[in-house]
């Protein structure tokens, strides 16, 4: 179909521009998740699984409801996702059994108690901390145990929703969090967390984040030189860690 051809072209352009390979995808309603990996990481990818959980009325969000009911429903949906999603294997059956969990998307948390004039004044006068005191996500993190352990990067950008298409009038924001099951030697470092306010095609402004994860370096590293299209193209470089003794069995 036209859509599948366009998606295939998009994936090809992304792989070429960023020297990466498509790993997996998941789509539900307007949510579309794509996972890519750099070629050098391919030898270390194991047991990739995808799961999805419908929330609300058959997976559809209901936007018009009382504020307290709406917030409670979001927390219940989040909790049901954590409880219902199960993965195969003994190492990490549930979502929070994994070492690191990223939670991101259009989560609809808003700035509570301030009208648009206060929001505009705070953003224009560089007083963003005033807004985050009334941010619903920040308040929920203090009162709801279900989000305990999740952390968010520093908020150094203005709210990214809701905009009139083609304008720069905002109301709330999108979020990106990460969670650690236990305290590892090095916690994820947020290298970049920002909005892209120049986009005007939607009532949302995109939000992106770049994280750095420290993991144990394997004794043997395999480097994929190029994309494999046939078996004869399969070329891998092997590098042994410094101080690790080689043998004739290598």
Automatic annotation (TrEMBL):
Pfam family, one: Exo_endo_phos2
GO molecular function: phosphatidylinositol-3,4,5-trisphosphate 5-phosphatase activity; phosphatidylinositol-4,5-bisphosphate 5-phosphatase activity
Span of domain Inositol polyphosphate-related phosphatase: 1-219
EC number in record: 3.1.3.36
InterPro entries: Endo/exonu/phosph_ase_sf (IPR036691), IP5 (IPR046985), IPPc (IPR000300)
One BP annotation, GO: phosphatidylinositol dephosphorylation
GO CC annotation terms, alphabetical: cytoplasm; plasma membrane; ruffle
PANTHER family per UniProt: INOSITOL 5-PHOSPHATASE, INOSITOL POLYPHOSPHATE 5-PHOSPHATASE K ISOFORM X1
Name the UniProt record assigns to this protein: phosphoinositide 5-phosphatase
């Amino acid at each position: 179909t036209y859509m599948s051809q366009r998606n295939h072209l998009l994936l090809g352009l992304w792989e070429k521009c960023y020297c990466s390979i498509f790993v997996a995808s998941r789509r539900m309603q307007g949510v579309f998740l794509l996972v890519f990996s750099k070629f050098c990481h391919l030898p270390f990818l194991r047991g990739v699984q995808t799961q999805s959980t419908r929330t609300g009325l058959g997976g559809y969000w209901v936007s018009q409801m009382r504020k307290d009911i709406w917030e409670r429903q979001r927390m219940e949906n989040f909790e049901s996702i954590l409880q219902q999603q199960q993965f195969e294997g003994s190492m990490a059956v549930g979502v929070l059994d994994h070492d690191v969990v990223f939670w991101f998307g259009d989560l609809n948390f808003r700035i509570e108690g301030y009208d648009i004039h206060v929001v505009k004044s705070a953003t224009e006068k560089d007083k963003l901390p005033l807004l985050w005191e009334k941010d619903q996500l920040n308040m929920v993190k203090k009162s709801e145990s279900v989000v305990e352990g999740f952390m968010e990067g520093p908020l150094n950008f203005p709210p990214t929703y809701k905009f009139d298409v083609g304008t720069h009038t905002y109301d709330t924001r999108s979020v990106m969090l990460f969670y650690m099951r236990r305290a590892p030697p090095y916690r994820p470092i947020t290298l970049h967390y920002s909005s892209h306010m120049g986009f005007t095609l939607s009532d949302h402004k995109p939000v992106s984040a770049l994280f750095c994860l420290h993991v144990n370096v394997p004794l043997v590293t395999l480097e994929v030189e190029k994309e494999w299209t046939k078996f004869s193209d399969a070329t891998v470089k092997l590098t042994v860690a410094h101080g690790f003794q080689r043998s004739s069995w290598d």
